[in-house]
Design goal:
This protein is mostly helical. The protein has one domain (11-144). It has seven helices and two strands. The protein has helices at 11-21, 28-48, 62-66, 73-76, 83-86, 105-110, 125-144; strands spanning 88-92, 95-99. It has a two-stranded antiparallel ribbon with strand order 1-2. Helix 1 runs parallel beside helix 7 (125-144). The longest helix has 21 residues, at 28-48.
Length: 145
């Protein structure tokens, strides 16, 4: 994927995934489900206009916002095909990558000289809970046989 790469080092989740990897079966399905959950979390942050830590995105510059149609332009900013719509994941047995092919994603995530950061990639507390649910479901199915 072109654009932005952010590595999340969450040792508790990594230890859990290492233990689960030793269970029968492949890790590819669990990584696919984790990817889907994290992409959905990022899309939810677009809808709420907030960072992974829950802090609100900075509002649009009033002059710029006046040229746009109605409230929520940050949310609407590509739900069909822009940044929101480009969020995707790639999963295999050893991991999952979440990201976008939009080069301007870095400006949105980190900010620039003229644009405040409006981060959307990263793990929220809800994302972590969703990942634990995915792992628990996988473990439950592996144990049940």
């Amino acid at each position: 994927m072109a654009g932005v790469t952010i590595k999340i080092d969450d040792s508790d989740l990594q230890q859990l995934l290492d233990r689960v990897a030793r269970l029968p079966g492949t890790m590819a399905p669990i990584m696919k489900n984790i990817g889907l959950a994290v992409v959905q979390g990022a899309q939810e942050r677009f809808r709420k206009e907030q960072a992974p830590d829950g802090s609100p995105w900075k509002s649009l510059d009033p002059d710029y916002a006046a040229t746009k149609r109605g409230p929520g332009i940050l949310r609407e900013m590509g739900q069909a095909g822009g940044l929101f719509g480009s969020l995707t994941y790639r999963a295999n047995a050893s991991g999952v990558e979440i990201g976008t092919n939009k080069v301007y994603a870095a400006h949105h995530q980190f900010g620039s000289d003229t644009l405040p950061a409006r981060p959307f990639l990263g793990l929220s507390d809800d994302d972590r809970a969703d990942i634990l649910d995915v792992v628990a479901d996988h473990v439950g199915r592996a144990v049940a046989g």
